[in-house]
Structures are given as C-alpha cells and as structure tokens.
Design brief:
The strands form two sheets. This protein has a six-stranded mixed β-sheet with strand order 1-2-3-5-7-10, with helices on both faces. The chain is α/β, with parallel strands linked by helices and 258 residues long. It has ten helices and ten strands. Bound molecules: hexanoyl-coenzyme A. Hexanoyl-coenzyme A binds next to helix 2 and strand 6.
Length: 258
C-alpha cells in the first residue's frame, strides 16, 4: 500500500526496522507542521507494531533538515506557538529507540530532531548548528537543553549564541554524534544499527533506554535506584532466562519479548 504521507516516506528496509525519510527536497526538509504530524504518525505506528524494534529517521544527502520551516513560522503570532512543537515532544517520549541518520545540514529544528533521537549516526558530510539566533529567536524543540547535555556549556553557548555551525568531526569530539560513517554507507550503517537493536529483547531495550534517559532527568543516587528497579524487573521476564540460558548453552538467544 502506498504511503498516505505528503512530506515523508516510510518503509521497512529489513525485518524489525521502520524507516522514515523526510522528503521536502525543495525546502531542504524544513520541518513544517505537516512533517511534524506525519513523522509522529509514522513513528507511532512503528512504535505500536510488535514486529518493529527500532526506527531510523533520515533526510536526503544534502540535508537531514535545515530547521523549522521559516516561511511557516514567519506567519505565526504568540498564541499560535502554544502547542507548536507538541508532536516533537511526543516523538521523544516513544519507547522504541530512534536512530537518526544525518547527512548534510542538521540545523535548528533539524539538529534538535537529530538530538531527540537515541542514537545519532552521522555521515562525514554532516553539519550541525542552532542558527535560530540569526532569526531573532532561540532553539524551541529542546535544543538548548539537549545540546548542553550532549556537548557541555562551553560549546552549547558558543553555538547557540553565535549561530555558527560545526562540522561532523567537531560534533563527534564534543559528544554529539554516536558514530561517523562515509556518506555512501550512511543509511546501510544506520539500518544495521537499528537491526541490531531490534534483534534484542524489546522490554529489555525499553528499560535500557529509560534508564539512560533518566540520567538526564535526575541525580546519581536516584538514577541508580531507578536503574536497579528496572534491572530487577528483568528477572520477572522470560527473555532474561532465555538470554542467560543461550549464553550458557553457547547458542543465539531466541527472544520472545515476554
Ligand atoms: C524554510 C528553507 C529552510 C528553512 C532552507 N529553506 N532552509 N525554507 N525553512 N529552515 C529553503 C530555502 O528558502 C530555499 O528555497 C531552499 O530551501 C534551498 O535553500 P538555499 O538557502 O537556497 O540553499 P543553500 O544556499 O545551499 O543554503 C543552505 C542553508 C540555508 C545554509 C541550510 O538554506 C539556511 O541557512 N537555511 C536556514 C537554516 C536555519 O536558519 N535554520 C533554523 C530555522 S529556525 P527557495 O524556494 O529559495 O529555493 C528553527 C527553529 C526551531 O529551526 C524551533 C524553535 C523555534
């Protein structure tokens, strides 16, 4: 069945992996309201599909996304902005891991979309930045927070206050990027990473994602307490028994997500 979408395309490139491609080539994949709604709808559908264990989000070779759609934003007034980015917030709350595959520009909302994903695979052509300051605004999809967490205050302030961009090597040194790969291999690598995640026990993956994310919400003692409760919870699952039995029997585990 063809996609019901106008600004994205979805597919299942390998079993277990949902792929979402942003597709507004004439606007360098600028994130307008249609893209936001469609990405959330597609990701939510993958999230509730028991066959899907990880989701890849990608753009084009030239641009992951060059930001929120400036033409659309230019027409908004204060009251229009109240729930403007709720869809992106909901995307960040999904249980299924999101793998960003970034080539070319990831600017403004594009950088923020990449950062709200769980794993960020970048092509050697990727360029990151939060240039909102040049428009008289600031990041609005969590960029000031996630960038500060990812790269620290020194670089976050530098990027957010000057609006300059950074290349993929600076981004990796700063801790923004999980892996750099040659541009020609980007999608294959990102899909392979997603397939690896999808091969694991789904409830264990969900718990692991929640545990790491808790590090950004709370202090060490509370975070470790949260981790410990999730860890102990695994001992109520069949996948835990299967994973350990498979290791001891020197065979591959057959997880059932139970
Ligand atoms: C709408 C955009 C766009 C955007 C590019 N385009 N970025 N349209 N919103 N964010 C459009 C251009 O208008 C142009 O359309 C076409 O895409 C190609 O872009 P060019 O500028 O011609 O390409 P190039 O010269 O190669 O420059 C690429 C670029 C530049 C450096 C990425 O496009 C750029 O600076 N874009 C804006 C980046 C930005 O400021 N992003 C932050 C947005 S604010 P036409 O029709 O002329 O061919 C943001 C806020 C987040 O993201 C949420 C908090 C509020």
């Amino acid at each position: 069945t063809p996609d019901p979408y106008t600004s994205i395309r979805t597919e299942v490139p390998v079993p277990g992996v949902g792929l979402i491609r942003l597709e507004r080539p004439k606007a360098l994949n600028a994130l307008n309201q249609a893209v936001q709604a469609e990405v959330l709808a597609a990701a939510s559908a993958f999230d509730t599909d028991p066959e899907i264990g990880a989701i890849v989000v990608t753009g084009s070779e030239r641009a992951f996304a060059a930001g929120a759609d400036i033409a659309e934003m230019a027409a908004l007034d204060y009251s229009d902005t109240e729930r403007l980015f709720d869809g992106w917030d909901r995307l960040a709350q999904l249980g299924t891991p999101l793998v960003a595959a970034v080539s070319g520009y990831a600017l403004g909302g594009g950088c923020e979309l990449a950062m709200l994903c769980d794993v960020l695979i970048a092509a050697d052509t990727a360029v990151f930045g939060q240039p909102e300051i040049n428009l008289g605004i600031l990041p609005g999809i969590g960029g000031s927070q996630r960038l500060a967490h990812a790269v620290g205050k020194a670089k976050a302030m530098d990027l957010v206050l000057t609006g300059r961009t950074m290349d993929v090597h600076e981004a990796e040194r700063a801790g923004l990027v999980s892996r750099i790969v040659p541009a020609t291999d980007l999608l294959d690598e990102a899909v392979a990473v997603a397939a690896t995640i999808a091969s694991k026990s789904k409830p264990a993956v969900l718990a692991a994602k929640q545990a790491v994310n808790r590090a950004f919400e709370t202090g060490l003692t509370e975070g470790v307490r949260f981790e410990r409760a999730l860890f102990r919870g695994r001992f109520a699952t069949m996948d835990r028994a299967e994973g350990m039995a498979a290791f001891l029997e020197k065979r591959e585990p057959r997880f059932t997500d139970r």
